[in-house]
Amino acid sequence: FLEDVKAQAKGELQASESRYQAQRRVTLALQTELLQLYSRLETEDSSATALALPAEGATEPH
Amino acid sequence: FLEDVKAQAKGELQASESRYQAQRRVTLALQTELLQLYSRLETEDSSATALALPAEGATEPH
Amino acid sequence: MAEDPQRNFRSAYYEKVGFRGVEEKKSLEIVLKDNPLDVEKLSTFSQRFPLPSMYRIHVWKVLLGILPPHSDSHTLVSRCRLQQFQDISSALTAMRFTHTHTPQTELYLRMFQLENQKLPRRSEPRPADDEDENFLAISRAMEEIVDDPVDCYWLVRCFVNQFKIKFGDSIPHLPKSLEHFLSQEDACLLAHLKSSGSLHSLPYRLWFRRCFAGCLPESSLQRVWDKVISGSCKILVFVAVEILLSYKILLMGISHPDGVYNFLSNLPQDNTDAIVTKAIDLWHKHCGTPMHAV
């Protein structure tokens, strides 16, 4: 009977742990995606600056 | 003794549950951040397009 | 139980008049009333008899460990399974991997990839590899069998995982096993397949990696999967043997391996129930019927 109680608890714990592990994988995936987006933003920001500079120059009277 | 085993099992399940909830809060925060980043990227993309358009127009002969 | 002549007579009678299922359904109901469930008994039952369709999904879930043996825990565990499904699928939506119009099977694949840390980068998408394609084929078939998307994902996920863990080492040997049993059943057909060079280009991936998903219609397929889920991958060999035997005359007339491959990859769907029934009989004949008391 004791074994039975233990087995039941184990079954429940496994389901709960699997749910927790999935959340951890989700966190990792989200972090990867965020990292990529940030680096994309930085590239765009710097290229936007690069584009903006000659454009500004062009408006200046020669 | 049986009560003891049951109590222990309950404790473990609760610990797993709270680990899960903590991780869940993390992923929710990350998802919110992701949402903001996407909209920021989109704004920049569309303003980049908006900027690019008159510039293109300007190069056209009048 | 099996030695009881009275019972054997009765079973034979039921079989003849088409009531064979009645007795089996009753004995399954008795097994399902156990708490905790005796998983061993359940697998023995599924090895011996076709599962009544009203209990199939439930039995599969227990056999695949989606539900634990203790019925008292089913509510709690089902809630965990549901939450896990929701957590992963909503993260995929947030990451814009999936949209409202994404086919369910693709969602399942992404979920499975995420759980296994194999999600490709969105900026560097890669085409689906063999394993992805196998997963998708199994998902498409499971979708036809199971209505609830949460159940469907869990069944595909655990089916694929269990298949790999339990049978991963045996799968490469199945073509050899097929050759062995075909030589016993029809040496002439085997000789033809060998001499035409077709034996090495049979649709083994469809048969032994996808477990006939996309090859057999669901009504036949689920009877094969009953056996796979309850612990046999040998059944796959016998289904393949029976397919070959059923189309022997036609196959004997095809001398090009591509022709054989193409025909078998697009199997006519009208005769598959009979093929599966014969395959299960042949499997019992060669591998014996599990004799645990049910």
TrEMBL record, chain C:
Function text: Non-catalytic component of the TSC-TBC complex, a multiprotein complex that acts as a negative regulator of the canonical mTORC1 complex, an evolutionarily conserved central nutrient sensor that stimulates anabolic reactions and macromolecule biosynthesis to promote cellular biomass generation and growth. The TSC-TBC complex acts as a GTPase-activating protein (GAP) for the small GTPase RHEB, a direct activator of the protein kinase activity of mTORC1.
Protein name: TBC1 domain family member 7
Molecular function GO labels: GTPase activator activity
Record-linked PROSITE patterns: TBC_RABGAP
Location(s), subcellular: Cytoplasm, Cytosol; Cytoplasmic vesicle; Lysosome membrane
Pfam families, sorted: RabGAP-TBC
InterPro entries: Rab-GAP-TBC_dom (IPR000195), Rab-GAP_TBC_sf (IPR035969), TBC1D7 (IPR039842), TBC1D7_dom2 (IPR043039)
GO biological process, one term: negative regulation of TOR signaling
Signal sequence, renumbered to the chain: none
GO CC terms, sorted: cytoplasmic vesicle; cytosol; lysosomal membrane
Lineage: Eukaryota, Metazoa, Chordata, Craniata, Vertebrata
Entry keyword Cytoplasm: yes
Record domain Rab-GAP TBC: where: 50-232
Keywords, alphabetical: Cytoplasm, Cytoplasmic vesicle, GTPase activation, Lysosome, Membrane
